[in-house]
Design goal:
There is one protein chain. Helices cover about 5% and strands about 45% of the residues. With about 90 residues, it is mostly beta strands. The protein has one domain. The longest helix is centred in the first third of the chain and has 4 residues. The chain is flat and about 35 Å long.
């Protein structure tokens, strides 16, 4: 990959759009205020899967009645030069 990670970020407009991914595109669906301000969902038209909600959260069973939620950052690798970082809170 050439350049630093800042040069490889793709800005998402508020109205959504699409992101090139190999031979296809991922559709960016605006879902503002459904989870948080500036929330987006991602739709893959090939597999017909909508990536939405708290994707990226990991639920771990710590004890019988205790759950721990670990927020992570979801990285969508677009191609060899672009990476989208979507913070999941």
């Amino acid at each position: 990959m050439k350049g630093g990670w800042l040069e490889r970020l793709i800005e998402l407009p508020d109205q959504g759009g699409s992101i090139p991914l190999g031979e296809t595109r991922i559709i960016v669906v605006p879902a503002h205020f459904l989870h948080s301000v500036g929330n987006f969902q991602f739709y893959d038209p090939i597999s017909k899967i909508l990536f939405s909600g708290d994707m990226g959260h990991l639920l771990l069973m710590m004890r019988l009645h205790q759950l721990m939620i670990l927020p992570v950052i979801f990285l969508l690798c677009v191609d060899s030069t672009n990476v989208i970082c979507v913070p999941i809170v």
